[in-house]
Design a protein that fits this description.
By secondary structure, the protein is an alpha/beta fold. It has two domains: 98 residues, Rossmann fold; 77 residues, Dihydrodipicolinate Reductase, domain 2 (2-Layer Sandwich). 38% of the residues lie in helices and 20% in strands. The chain contains six helices and eight strands; from the N terminus they run βαβαβαβαβαβαββ. The longest helix has 17 residues. The protein is elongated, with a radius of gyration of 18 Å.
């Protein structure tokens, strides 16, 4: 498979190493130092673009991939206020897009367990819900996409909760998420 990488930080380099180890070809690498590469013939030759960048650049990257006719797989979080536009382009214009807030198998199992626990907790209103998540100091968004996905799974299954809030709940129907950024810790 021909792969274009958008974002060449820690995750981009890890994806490159795994892809090459599995016999895939990296045909293009787009990073902050060469944003024009996304319009190159090498980029357009990719079977897929794998995008791990920043919340500020992700949506524009998707639009440029769509314009180039390259399907997108993205793990960038913090941009979901525009997901409706991406869905609409996929549905109306046949664009291809796959997004997950976390690609870890273990975390996705945790997402399923979280929803199951939320269904059980729905019957016990005496217990309240709050979250704390910790990531390394290089994490650009807060709360993390993983924490937001967990909170949304709770909101779907607990009748007394209707939104999440960063840090402090304004009302009893909120789920407060306390986001800590410290050291080089992995996501907790």
């Amino acid at each position: 498979m021909k792969i274009a990488l958008i974002g060449y930080g820690k995750m981009g380099k890890t994806i490159e190493q795994i892809a090459l180890g599995r016999g895939h070809q990296i045909v293009s690498v787009v990073d902050i130092n060469n944003p024009e590469e996304i319009r190159s013939d090498n980029f357009k030759s990719a079977d897929v673009a794998i995008e791990f960048t920043t919340p500020a650049t992700a949506f524009d990257n998707y639009m440029q991939c769509f314009a180039a006719g390259v399907p997108v797989v993205s793990g960038t979080t913090g941009w979901l206020d525009k997901i409706g536009q991406v869905k609409e382009m996929c549905e109306k214009e046949g664009k291809t897009f796959f997004y997950a807030s976390n690609f870890s198998i273990g975390v996705n199992i945790f997402f399923a367990l979280n929803k199951y626990l939320a269904k059980i907790m729905n019957s016990f209103p005496a217990y309240d819900i709050k979250m704390m998540e910790t990531h390394h100091i290089h994490k650009l968004d807060a709360p993390s996409g993983t924490a937001i996905t967990l909170a949304e799974g709770i909101i779907e299954n607990v009748d007394r909760k209707d939104r999440w809030m960063l840090e402090t709940a304004e009302k009893t129907t909120d789920i407060p998420i306390h986001a800590i950024r410290e050291g080089e810790v992995p996501g907790i």
